[in-house]
Amino acid sequence: MGLLEGKVAIISGSGRGIGRAAAEIFAREGASVVVNDLDKDPANEVVEFIKGRGGKAVACPGNVTAPDFGERFVKTALESFGRLDIIVNNAGYTWDAVIQNMTDEQWYAMIDVHATAPFRILRAAAPYIRNAVKQEKAAGQYVQRKIVNVSSLAAYGSAGQVNYSAGKAAMLGIIKTLAKEWGRYNVNANAVVYGWIKTRLTGEKETSQDIVIEGKSIAVGVPKAGIDNMLMTLPLGRAGTPVEAASAIFFFASPLADYVTGQVLPVDGGMHI
Predict the structure, then answer these.
(1) Are residues 198 and 273 in contact, defined by beta-carbon separation less than 8 angstroms?
(2) Is 164 a catalytic residue?
(3) Backbone phi and psi for residue 122, each to the nearest 5 degrees, phi listed first
(4) Do the Cβ atoms of 74 and 98 come closer than 8 Å?
(5) Is the distance from CB of 50 to CB of 211 less than 8 angstroms?
(6) Is the pTM value of this prediction over 0.90?
(7) Which of 100, 166, 195, 248 is the most exposed place for a label (fewest CB within 10 A)?
(8) Architecture of domain 8-196+241-267
(9) Distance of CA 19 to the CA centre of its chain
(10) Would you say 115 and 171 are in contact if contact means Cβ atoms under 8 Å apart?
């Protein structure tokens, strides 16, 4: 029996990187997983990978910033697996500029994906959670549910990323609020803040490929000089892997964290010491 046996999880941005690693860990530990990616092919690939190893998963591709996405995401879990226990808000990307060069489009893109999308997903889940708790209480059952928001050390300020920093800071405010509002529903709400994790967003800028969001090409990556500087200051001396990053999400989603709520865990190789 895995630690998530019988649980149902929705994980945004789980077709690649940290989100994919989380989906695979969750499935291995017994959860049924709703996999999301902006593009259907990566989402379907993860679903097939999980099914090929005896797990349960379905795809819910699409842009998390779409006004109807939250409702569709939650509905997919309920129609496919009959319940919802774990919500992981992981989808996101960067679109950098110093503040005087930043456009309104850049600003709202980061707020939409990192703050508005998680808000809508959680709002969409609220009716189900409230009704489920009433039914469980009437039946003498106690069920613990989990919310994990994936944030970044940029939430505490990052030059050239005022939009990203604001969005990632908002994710922490959401968690602190939901921990207070939903504790009575037996919901734990926590967040992880990542430092330098090896994904397509954090490779060397000089060799990284742009990502495409809704037909728009956006440059990502970190200048090699910046990576070298981070290596010199990191106590562990290396970037984290997606699996190492996802393991912290799993901790919060598992029974190991049943009495932990409203907390923010740095996963950064010591960068935040």
Answers:
(1) no
(2) yes
(3) -65, -40
(4) no
(5) no
(6) yes
(7) 100
(8) 3-Layer(aba) Sandwich (3.40)
(9) 6
(10) yes
Per-residue pLDDT of the chain (273 residues; tens, 9 = 90+): 899 999 999 999 999 999 999 999 999 999 999 999 999 999 999 999 999 999 999 999 999 999 999 999 999 999 999 999 999 999 999 999 999 999 999 999 999 999 999 999 999 999 999 999 999 999 999 999 999 999 999 999 999 999 999 999 999 999 999 999 999 999 999 999 999 898 877 766 666 777 888 778 887 777 777 778 878 889 999 999 999 999 999 999 999 999 999 999 999 999 887
Task: Name residue 138's amino acid.
Answer: A
SS3 labels along 19-60: HHHHHHHHHHCCCEEEECCCCHHHHHHHHHHHHHCCCEEEEC
Kindly state the helix (H) or strand (E) to which residue 264 belongs, with its residue range: strand 264-267
Domain boundaries, the chain: 8-196+241-267
How buried is 3 (Cβ within 10 angstroms: 0-12 exposed, 13-18 middle, 19+ buried)?
middle
Angstrom distances, CA of residue 146 to CA of 32, 109, 227: 14, 27, 34
Residue 20 main-chain phi, psi, to 5 deg:
-65, -45
Q: Which residues of 57-93 are buried (b: 16+ CB within 10 A; e: fewer)?
A: bbbbebbbbeeebbeebbbbbeebbeebbbbbbbbbb
**Bridge partners of residue 137, in order along the sequence:** none
Residue 54: count other Cβ atoms within 10 Å of its Cβ: 8
3-class DSSP state for residue 44?
Answer: helix
Active-site position among 128, 142, 164, 259:
164
Question: Which structure tokens are listed for 203?
Answer: 């490779």
What are the tokens at 138?
A: 């009437």
Q: How far apart are CA 272 and CA 270, in angstroms?
A: 5
For residue 204, give the 3-state DSSP assignment. strand
Token pair for residue 94?
Answer: 């960067």
